[in-house]
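quick one, 295 residues, struct below
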Amino acid sequence: MRCFKRLITLSVSIFFLLTFVSKSCDIILKPFSLVSLKKIYLKDIAEKYPKNLKNFYIANAPYINSSLIVNDRYLSSLLKNKGFKNLKICRKKSIVKRKPLYIKESFIKKLTGLNNITIVSAMPVVVPYAEYSFKVKSIKKSGQFVWIVLSLYENGKFFRNIGISAKSRISDILPVASMDIRRGEIIQPNELKFVKITKNTNKPVLKTNDAIIGCVATVDIRKGQFFTSLNTKKPFLVKRGDIVSVSVVENAIKISTVAKALRNGFDKDMIPIKYINSNRVVVAQVVGNKKVLVK
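---
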């Protein structure tokens, strides 16, 4: 019982001691401070301060993932330089950090309207806390891959761009090989079929008949495999050294002749050709199998 009374007496003594210390301090620093603005004011780092010094400027806030230490000597020096002397500061220092803003995957999908994507970039994106407005600067797609650029504005002024990589989820009807196709074969319409796909693939999948039919298989393609830019390629309509049929169009007059192709060419490519009779070299457009057009 005696020990219990002593404990109560000690607790009361500590309480009154802390109360006395608190009242004798003009400023009591917080051990840790989290700020949401670009500038640090006394109200941000102190739990007690004179009311007239509430918005006393201390320093610029640190960037996210870093901290700033405001100690009692630095603060006392700032106050004295502004004419505020003989203020007692309690607690040696305050460790200041900038409040972060987390940009999450769900927000990016809602902003862009791209719900059928998986974000590849590290999430969430962390920026210093502020009242931002967001705009979609650009969305670029290549096969399954999507590149998004978001612009952040603070108080109507541009702050920064954020680049985000994503991948489209496959939940579509896509073409696959309906039979085994040997390397070097030209893919025919009956060699593909469309099936419903629900799994993701990292490969650049070809999605239309036009992108596949007439292409050459660069490897053996097994039945049920996707057609991609890795296992198919467009055939050259004109190969270097081919004797090609040339249509020359000038002033509504069309002349046909022959020439030698000096370079390989796909459909609509511009390639150099050399006329057989004159050895003159001109540029022609590939328009068909061993056919070119000169305008």
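Residues 12-21 have pLDDT under 50 and may be disordered.
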